Task: structure prediction
Amino acid sequence: MAQNMSVEICGVRLKNPVMTASGTFGSGVEFSEFLDLNRLGAVVTKGVALVPWEGNPVPRICETPSGMLNAIGLQNPGVAVFAKRDLKFLEEELSRDQAGEGTKVVVNVCGHSEEEYIGCVEKLSDEPRADLLEINISCPNVREGGIAFGTDPKGVERITSAVRKAARQPVIMKLSPNVTSISEIAKAAEAGGADALSLINTLTGMKIDVERRTFALANRTGGLSGPAIHPVAVRMVYECAQAVKIPIIGMGGIRTAEDALEMIMAGATAVSVGTASFHDQTTVLSVIDGIEGFLERHQVSDIRDLIGCVR
Amino acid sequence: MKYREKATVLGCEEIGTRIFSLRLETRQIAAEARPGQFVSVYCSDASRLLPRPISVCEADAGAGVLRLVFRIAGKGTQEFSRLCSGDKVDLAGPLGNGFSLEMGEGKRILAVGGGIGIPPMLETAKRLASGGQDVTAVLGYRDEVFLRDEFPCRCIVATEDGSCGTRGNVLDAIRAGKLEADVIFACGPAVMLRAIAAYAREHGILCQVSMEEKMACGIGACLSCVYKSKEIDTHSQVKNKRVCTEGPVFLSTDIEI
Result:
């Protein structure tokens, strides 16, 4: 018996519920030397803005127990180069079946201001290869690089509704965990017209280099990711799944199929693998295979039967 | 091509205080690795999830043997130092660009290494020497000398404590030996590379420097390991070249060193 692995996010069919997490996979070019991108549910590209961003000074990353801190600062080439080069690469790399189905592309968008978000989203409207947009209102490493919009429910509703009006594609709002109540933020995004939610972005953290008696990161603080944050992410996915009706893409520390299934059972329709790709480029494939194996072992005919099955 | 491999440990020995020489049997990586390139070495303990970038000390294409020489800097390299013959270790590589040895053809070359920047100069010197090039190695140590006897060319040593060769750093040794060069290949601490780059600029010498920066993915996707460049970079259209991809070797005049 073949199990159904496919899920739907706001009308877009994913062949399986596993995608990459923005910022950990570039646009897939580099990883394509290690794995076939066509096996993924979707490739989620690194945040792109209206114009090129330089990012933060180095050091931009450091390792922490079962995790890492990053403060890249959303370095990106701007949407024009991204569309011409990265989306073209994905267009060539990703094949489609006769029904026109295949691995989808989620373009993550960042901005300093409402106008920049809208400008970038409008530019992407003409790009047929951008199947979904994920709006980063939660980057902890750039002032006004998102988080300024992402921590106040009113701000979230306003930016969501502005982006929603400008976008041709379905809009996924990517939420910050650095808030008192993530379900309030989730409800605000839903009220603003979000088609789906991604959560969680990284947790703000700090590491001190005791030998040098200074901050390990030039930015002082950075975003914590990796297995260390997984239980926090599962809890937040669960809370938001109880609070909203729109689909949720769960992410935060997923390294194994079991981690991914936790998210799905907590209420995520799909999942993203991020930091674990740094430990093994093919993690995303072993997560897909592992979920398939689980369905087979437990004689579950449809992955969708597991979404939010734990209440 | 880049490869992900499970390499087999052939041996691991301490060749200096906290400095280890690890020999690995690989399927592809040793065959394709060039001097100045590096490999990502993965910890078996996944709680240390980032790979450790370690430069290629020797790559024997015929035998498929890769040699890495590293200093214990933390728990990850400590784990590698305890590897035993027959153990398996995950690698990705070869990564980065490596030195452009062609630039030295028919020229007087200095292969300059400082501290744990010395290992990549061994394969560099070996390839240059076996290609009949005029290469002199200049090796700078704090005190304890390692790897020197394996260099197949003239070797000038500097030690900070004066226990061997010139007392001082590699530039002191270059000046003391009145070494003249047309091309320099260098790897070592940032402060040494900065001084070498300045020396090269003063003397009109072409200089390639191998830089280091904290990395996460090691393959060019995460944009952690950037170095300020003079020209707009191709990836992000700013002035940030990726050490793991456009580097680790740069022409000293191409970066804000």
